[in-house]
Amino acid sequence: MTLEANALTERGFAAQVRKIGYRLAAPQRLLRKYYSYVLGHDVSKAQARTMTEAQLAFFAVTLPADYPLTLRVLACVWFVVTAKKLRIKS
pTM of the entire structure? Predict the structure, then answer.
């Protein structure tokens, strides 16, 4: 079976892929807007990603009470590294 695609079909497919990508990136855009609002200045995509990573690392350090010591140390190291990344980029 041979499938033939014309230019119109290809453009329609490309437009659908762009729409899907835009919708999947919505949470990241919303977080970036939130961080910008809270901090009072424009936050880049990379800064927003690093802030989110620092929050995840912080919760990995504080929330689980029954983690083994090794995982707690790794979570602490992860938090310190992401906090330093934030300090450098600010």
Answer: 0.70
Cα separation of 62 and 47, whole Å?
22
d(CA 27, CA 30): 5
HSE toward the beta carbon, residue 57, CA cutoff 13 A: 20
Q: Does the CA dihedral 33-37-42-43 come out positive or negative?
A: negative
Smallest CA-to-CA distance from 51 within 74, 69, 72, 28 is with: 28
Helices 69-89, 45-62: crossing angle, 10 deg rounding: 150
32, burial (CB in 10 Å: exposed 0-12, middle 13-18, buried 19+): buried
For the record, the structure tokens of 22 come out as 């835009």
Question: For the chain, what is the mean pLDDT?
Answer: 86
Sign of CA dihedral 30, 33, 36, 38: negative
